[in-house]
Write a structure and sequence with these properties.
10 helices; alpha/beta; seven-stranded mixed β-sheet; 19 strands; single chain
Length: about 400
């Protein structure tokens, strides 16, 4: 089964008309995107958009062989003109399945927002799922879930849709996840590709034809990632974003509750509100056993607070205790953690502060903490496939 993406953008397209934002200003050339429409084997059209016939011609196809046109969502604005020769577009009631004369089978998938998803099975048995903008499958269970060779979805706007599909095995390691309905939420080009790759997805240019079941372009998700950054740099947001398309994430909070500290409680509340409801939280600094266990992905936030706890436990703030064995004990704990990261089979995203580029601390204990955090970051990062530095909300890839 072949699918041609006549457009890959949001319903308003990219750039949006009269939008002055930076993403729209840089959406030029191959990064311009018409509203998403998908041509399947030249016979089935999913979503009819303005200029679909011209888009098909530019991609080397014709709409003359289309036998069915299905709409996935309501179209705002003026009615789209149906090109001569095309059947009248329609939507299929949720759960209904069509057997087309072309040999394709199409089943309407219920969404949690306005719109309809379509599961398409080709003549060769390959399976594709197409989701509308802003929608995620509703009512999935282990009994009703099906596996797909390709998924076309609003990965940026609804990352939880991908998490739901992964939770029930509908998306696996070999599923080609292609982002569509792309809007100006993420700057186009390298930043978009980087964010999608972290989710195990990719974007293609308008007019691209893909073979369902061809897996060679499926990006590999880094299994261990370290995200560094200064205060309020956006490092925690970046770390959370990297796992929002995966179900059952265990968020490991190393800072504790700090009873009576209102400002700290507010910080914790902001983090909790950002996290998906399906994530679980563990408040602990005992990281080695978690890394040794099998289980869902870990998000560790953060290593700098882990280090504070360890330095407390070994008496690192007292010069005499530090010289009398505290330094040796701390280095051993760091080695144990690095070794656990090396051996773990879990997906891990860890956050840490980068404090070595600022003012030199005025106290010996402050300088000690700065130095040991630098050593910890280096040891942890050495065991990671990807290391990022977040500056002013922008992620710079240091490795991977």
């Amino acid at each position: 089964m072949e699918v041609t993406l006549l457009g890959t953008g949001a319903p308003a397209g990219l750039p949006r008309p009269d939008c002055p934002c930076a993403a729209c200003a840089t959406a030029l050339g191959p990064d311009t995107r018409a509203a998403t429409a998908v041509l399947v084997d030249g016979e089935l059209l999913l979503d009819l958009t303005p200029g679909a016939a011209f888009a098909a011609a530019r991609a080397g196809h014709s709409l003359g062989g289309v036998r069915q046109v299905l709409l996935s969502h309501p179209h705002d604005g003026p009615a789209v003109e149906v090109p001569a020769g095309l059947p009248q577009p329609g939507r299929v009631p949720d759960g209904r399945e069509l057997a087309l004369l072309t040999g394709h089978r199409v089943r309407a998938v219920a969404m949690d927002a306005g719109g309809t998803g379509y599961a398409v099975t080709g003549r060769d048995g390959q399976r594709m799922l197409y989701l509308p903008p802003g929608g995620a499958p509703a009512g999935l269970t282990e009994a009703t879930a099906e596996s797909y060779d390709m998924v076309l979805a609003d990965v940026v706007g609804r990352p939880d849709a991908l998490a739901r599909l992964r939770a029930f095995g509908s998306v696996g390691p070999a599923t080609d996840v292609v982002a569509v309905h792309l809007d100006h939420d993420v700057p186009p080009g390298p930043e978009l590709r980087r964010r999608l790759a972290a989710a195990g997805a990719r974007a293609v240019a308008d007019g691209t034809t893909l073979a369902v079941g061809a897996y060679e372009d499926v990006p590999d998700v880094p299994r261990r990632t370290l995200v560094l950054g200064g205060a309020r740099s956006g490092k925690s947001v970046e770390a959370e974003r990297r796992l929002e398309t995966f179900p059952d994430v265990l968020y490991v909070a190393t800072g504790g509750t700090r009873g009576g500290d209102r400002e700290w409680a507010q910080r914790v509340a902001v983090h909790r509100e950002r996290r998906p409801g399906s994530w679980r939280t563990a408040e602990t600094t005992d990281l080695v056993p978690l890394l040794a266990e099998d289980g869902p992905p870990l998000l560790i936030d953060c290593l700098s607070l882990w280090l504070t706890d360890v330095m407390d436990s070994v008496g690192a703030w007292d010069d005499a205790e530090w010289a009398g064995g505290g330094e040796r004990s701390l280095r051993e704990r760091v080695r144990e953690l690095a070794d656990a990261v090396r051996r773990t089979r879990r997906t891990v995203v860890a956050v840490s502060n980068e404090v070595g580029s600022g003012i030199v601390p005025a106290t010996a204990s402050g300088r000690r903490y700065r130095d040991e955090l630098g050593r910890l970051n280096a040891a942890f990062g050495a065991e990671c496939e990807q290391v990022l530095l977040v500056v002013a909300g922008q992620a710079v890839v240091l490795r991977g």
